[in-house]
TrEMBL record, chain A:
It is a multi-pass membrane protein. It comes from the Bacteria. Keywords: Cell membrane, Membrane, Transmembrane, Transmembrane helix, Transport. It comes from Rarispira pelagica. Residues 140-331 form the ABC transmembrane type-1 domain. The keyword Transmembrane helix applies. The chain crosses the membrane at residues 144-163, 175-202, 208-230, 251-276, 312-331. PROSITE patterns: ABC_TM1. Belongs to the binding-protein-dependent transport system permease family. This is Carbohydrate ABC transporter permease. Pfam families: BPD_transp_1. It is found in: Cell membrane.
TrEMBL record, chain B:
Belongs to the binding-protein-dependent transport system permease family. The keyword Cell membrane applies. It is a multi-pass membrane protein. This is Sugar ABC transporter permease. The keyword Lyase does not apply. The chain crosses the membrane at residues 21-43, 78-101, 113-133, 167-191, 224-246, 274-296. Keywords: Cell membrane, Membrane, Transmembrane, Transmembrane helix, Transport. It is found in: Cell membrane.
């Protein structure tokens, strides 16, 4: 009996705690809900200060093929819901949607003082508008091209370098590895001016080359992560392959790489998300070249041009976030476990 | 003996072959630019008119360190912002990690995924979403404050998160909470590395939850706190995207968001003053290096390594 009570208490505690965290999570994710809600709203609703979670629009009534907005009209001390046929400053003409045969009703007063009747009415066409206004297909093509090419280049080059550091001894290896790690703390500001100048004189500024080509030469984070993983694969695998007559390159790609699939997938995901979000490189190298912009830059430009249409801005950000979010949801198991397990943070 | 020697040579050869992509990349994209960047600091050199490259001596350094007040001011701004940003970010990330690691939490994977999720959204997109949520007319934050505390928070006389000079660093810190997924995961990894026996022993000795937190959990995760601080400092010294997206690099009224990296960007890539820009870039580097070194220096007083090694 006592044991039962303890068990019940423990479960009650668990459920209460979980619910509290769920509440915190919903506050944390509130902006996401805001973005989605905003993306479905009309400009009218936003302009009229009708703040609501739901996307609302004035309710309309169709009569003889025309749409009339519904208003709450006070008549004889009673509030009636009427459709406005003709608006006027002193008096407006209404009709009763419940009783159209009664004909036109005249009402005296300024129609601007009247309240609309609101109905939930998600504006799915916002997505099409934002899609067209941002030239989204071009942004998407540029971003996808950049992300896919550089992920391939980065993973391939980092794997090769990581294998070199993990399996071969050569003079100065430890110092070189230290140098590799220390490049992480060097701010991009220091290298970006000479690199920019170099690419400027090569005529590459205004093209994608300055941001794509460096990824063929690996990067410290990814080399470090892959090396940590490769060190965990038994050396006997390499030796057995060598005895069977495989050269080092074949050993890497046919024996070691298949063993390291999960680390390779993790590095690919890291780089893919990085590339999808990359901002500084494209910003300096593609300035003014709108046909080459990736989503991150296109979105910034759109944000500054469409300040009067916050609903379309939010729609565009939702569209821009969908692909990384979908990939994350499908790959979250690999992603989260790798983040914790690879030891890159320890 | 001869054979061992040739095997060694074979290993050296292949080792260098495999690391050559990084070696070449290091020379072209790190070593050479570092040297050239340093040389640039002594030149008057603008890409808008390349015919006029001239030797400037220490002029650029003198200007940055003694004449241009904006440089020192921008350093002051990033320090003030760090002082506000760092404790809030670390406390938030650590609290979330503690909650996600709690034995009372059901459905841990679900919560981990969703607390990480905003970090996946392109940073530009999340800044724009926050710009909306914090808007005093159409945003939800002020509305929520109004509803909960029954005060007038919306409209032009409400809380103007993005325009109030007293709030702007807090606002940027709040926006930053969304990108703390990695920091949370690092804390979580640290928490999972603490041996359960320590807690069991403490429980037998009658230690309560808070006691365990301060006597076991916090000391045991000081190495990951240290790691997160170092990564955080390096990131903050290069803080750029949020102010750029919100103000398009024009800087906040009163220049409050004209941080070193923002100023660097303007000098180097708006005015194309490559020489002067290079000086600011080096100052950003030294600033980061100074604070990282400071952290390493203090580390032996508060970072605890269970293995005893430092």
């Amino acid at each position: 009996m006592i044991a039962d009570n303890v068990l019940v208490m423990r479960y009650a505690k668990k459920i209460a705690f979980t619910l509290a965290i769920l509440l915190l999570l919903s506050v944390f994710l509130l902006p996401l809900a805001y973005g989605m809600s905003m993306s479905l709203k009309t400009l009218d609703q936003i302009a009229m200060g009708k703040v609501s979670v739901l996307p609302l629009a004035p309710k309309t009534w169709t009569y003889n093929g025309k749409d009339y907005k519904l208003y709450k009209v006070p008549i004889n001390g009673q509030e009636k819901i009427l459709a406005m046929v003709k608006k006027g400053r002193q008096k407006s003409v209404f009709m009763d949607p419940d009783n159209p045969n009664a004909g036109e009703i005249e009402w005296e007063g300024n129609w601007r003082g009247l309240d609309n009747v609101w109905a939930v009415y998600p504006q799915w066409e916002n997505f099409k508008k934002a899609w067209d206004a941002t030239k989204f297909p071009i942004l998407l093509r540029n971003t996808a091209m950049y992300a896919v090419i550089t992920t391939f280049a980065m993973v391939l080059s980092s794997l090769i370098v990581a294998y070199g550091f993990a399996r071969f001894s050569f003079p100065g290896k430890n110092i070189l590895f230290m140098v590799l790690i220390s490049t992480i703390i060097l701010p991009s500001a220091v290298t970006s001016i000479p690199t920019y100048t170099m690419f400027y004189f090569m005529g590459w500024v205004g093209t994608w080359l300055p941001v794509i080509i460096p990824t063929f030469f690996s990067n410290a984070y990814n080399v470090f992560l892959l090396r940590q993983f490769l060190m965990g694969i038994p050396r006997e695998m390499d030796e057995a392959a060598r005895i069977d007559g495989a050269g080092p390159v074949r050993t890497l790609f046919q024996i070691i790489a298949p063993q390291a699939t999960s680390a390779i997938v993790a590095v690919s995901l890291f780089h893919f998300f990085f590339a999808w979000n990359d901002f500084f490189g494209p910003l300096i190298y593609l300035a003014g070249n709108a046909d080459l912009y990736p989503i991150s830059i296109g979105l910034t430009v759109f944000n500054n041009q469409y300040t009067s249409q916050p609903n379309l801005i939010q729609t565009a950000t939702i569209i821009a976030s969908i692909i990384p979010l979908v990939i994350f949801v499908f790959a979250q198991k690999v992603f989260m476990e790798k983040l914790i397990d690879t030891g890159v943070f320890k | 003996m001869q054979k061992a020697h040739s095997l060694e040579k074979w290993e050296h050869k292949w080792g260098f072959r495999f690391i050559s992509p990084w070696l070449i990349g290091f020379f072209i994209f790190y070593l050479l630019p570092i040297i050239v960047s340093f040389i640039f600091t002594f030149l008057d050199f603008s890409l808008s008119d390349v015919s006029k490259i001239s030797f400037a001596g220490l002029k650029n350094w003198k200007r940055a360190l003694f004449e241009d007040k904006e440089v020192l001011a921008s350093v002051g701004r990033i320090l003030l912002f760090s002082v506000i940003n760092m404790p809030i970010s670390m406390l938030f990330a650590l609290s979330v990690a503690l909650m996600l690691n709690s034995r009372y939490l059901l459905g841990k994977r679900f919560f981990r995924t969703f607390f990480y999720l905003p970090s996946i959204i392109p940073l530009v997109a999340s800044v724009i979403i926050w710009q909306g949520v914090l808007n005093e007319n159409t945003g939800w934050i002020n509305l929520l404050i109004e509803k909960i505390f029954n005060v007038d928070a919306t409209g032009s006389d409400g809380i103007r998160w993005l325009a109030n000079p007293h709030l702007i660093y807090v606002t940027y810190t709040i926006i930053g909470l969304w990108g703390l997924g990695n920091t949370i995961i690092v804390f979580l990894a640290g928490l999972q590395g603490i041996p359960v026996e320590l807690y069991e022993a403490a429980e037998i000795d009658g230690a309560g939850g808070w006691h365990s937190l301060f006597r076991i959990t916090l000391p045991m995760i000081t190495p990951v706190v240290f790691y997160n601080l170092v990564i955080g400092v390096i990131g903050l010294m290069q803080y750029f995207l949020v102010p750029y997206v919100i103000n398009l690099g024009s800087g906040f009224p009163d220049g409050l968001t004209n941080f070193p990296m923002v100023y660097f960007f303007r000098q180097a890539f708006t005015y194309f003053n490559m020489g002067y820009g290079a000086v600011i870039a080096w100052l950003i580097f030294f600033l980061g290096l100074f604070f990282t070194a400071l952290l390493f220096k203090t580390a032996r007083h508060w970072v605890y390594y269970a293995g005893g090694d430092k």
